[in-house]
Amino acid sequence: MRGWQQQRARQLQQQRRASQYRYQQEYYRRLLRQQAGLGAFRYRHDNPYFHAPASHRYGYGGNWYDTNRYGADLLRQAIHYGYREGYRAGRADRRDRWRYDYRSTFAYRDASFGYRHYYVGRRDYQYYFRQGFRRGYDDGYASRYRYGRHDNGSANILQNVLATILNLQVLR
């Protein structure tokens, strides 16, 4: 674990936030497993997925960006993963009877679970992950499904909420 992650883990233990501590540790293990799996990936110049023409536009912060359909899928995935992780983190804080505070969670600050280093930039991925996370945290903390639903043992963001967040436009 990096220094601030270890410091955060100690802080959670001192605050007797066992659920949030367990959630943070589980997130970190999932993140490491995922990154280990991505280590085998190699960029190939002849890979048609990397050179597919821009087919979608997305925007945030007053700027617009173009991406291909694979980038659009990665941004959708960022929102899905963010919602799921946010739901878990919010539920953990509720169990610990802790105040509503999604920004202090390790997963929100990291916001890289699922990022594959291609199609879209890390900053864009993190922005959309955090958008999903905030809504998932809201639902998990309140123990309800306003932005998502429960399917097959997992929390999933509603498609209309995802579409509103992403505001993806198809290019002609």
Provide a descriptive summary of the structure in words.
Helix content is 55%, strand content 12%. It has helices at 3-14, 18-38, 69-95, 106-110, 122-142, 159-166, and strands at residues 56-60, 63-67, 148-151, 154-157, 169-170. The chain has a three-stranded antiparallel sheet with strand order 2-1-5. The radius of gyration is 17 Å and the shape is globular. It starts with a helix and ends with a strand.
List the helices and strands and how they pair.
Layout: H1 3-14, H2 18-38, E1 56-60, E2 63-67, H3 69-95, H4 106-110, H5 122-142, E3 148-151, E4 154-157, H6 159-166, E5 169-170
Antiparallel strand pairs: 1-2, 1-5, 3-4
